Amino acid sequence: MLLRHVPTVGNLLEGIIQVPVARLKGINRHFGVSYSTLPTCNELPRKLKKSERKPPVRSFNELKREARLKRKKRQNAREIILQPPENGLLVEHLVPVAGEVYAARTELLSTVSRLIKYIAIYTCSLCGEVHVGHPPHKIRTCNVQGSLSSKEHAWVRGGIQHVLPLVESFHLYDRIGRAVSHKEMLEVDRIPAIVELCVQAGFDIPEYPTRRRTFPVYSIAGKMIDFEKRFPKDFSLGEDIDACGFRYNRKRMDKDTHPAELYPNDIKAIAVGGMKAWEKMCSGSSKLMETYAVQTCGYCPEVQVGPKGHRVRNCQAYKHQMRDGQHAWQEARISDLVPPVYVYHVQDQQNNKPLVNELRRYYIMLPAVVELFAQCGAPLEPKYAGAMRDVVIPEMDEEKWVV
Known about the structure:
alpha+beta; 3-stranded antiparallel β-sheet; 15 strands; disordered N terminus
């Protein structure tokens, strides 16, 4: 008799489980449409407060454990075998990757500099928010000192520097040499951080020479021993390089920001090529950063490519007085090297109506470069599908009926 009622109890349990699931999905029978109230898109990174530190790549307990092991090894007066690139040698299989990243960056700058002639870029003169496309949105999110009481943005025309922010780093002739001191702050050359990463990974640029070792350095009791001469025989020490290996020639890399136009007049084809260059630059930079160390300040956007940060006391972030202006160096992420500028995504490009503040919760945000290419006709990559909401943006007269 009990076995006869087992399927009935199972059906009842199945029905009880399905009822809350149906309620969570939010079936709206008045409109005849079913929508999900569960989060279906990836949330953007939370904006940190001024007093908050950037989340570290590795936990502080792991970093302390690694520091204790290194301290214990330095107590033994014996040689420690270092692997590339810690011993000054290049990682051979990453040299082509460095060339691809540099070529992708050059193509990306060329593509963006041409597409901004067809797609308008706006930036707020008060808070610095960016919008891609015309007309700019009407969302009231300007909440800084000096902004209007209505929190509306004061839009002005922007440029390539607002879509692709430039992050610079000190150029090091010897990546495992001493750090840049505070007195050399205005003398040592600064170049884009991605370019410095490519140079340290094996890509040669005549304007920015770097030291290429043929013999590794050795670590004995925590001290670096270099048996190779500081400069090779075929290299003459010029006036712009001192004995410490720092370059003092103030040449800028302006040729990347104003390249020659080598693309056809097909805007969509240009945008597709720019999207591929963007993905190749980001993926290649992430691959290089897994081997070549990049440091960033935990409180400000300062970046230094190399195994250690510089000693320049120019940090003006939270409690910099306690650090005497020095940076709180930690391991960097790809977002520190290539900071993403998130803008509102315009789904209907044919509709020239601005985005309104009342429908703010229905809009999505994408990186500014991706939004620029998308408005020019380039298809979005599959990884951006997580940021797309599977809902239809209602009209203003329909928004009040949405629950």
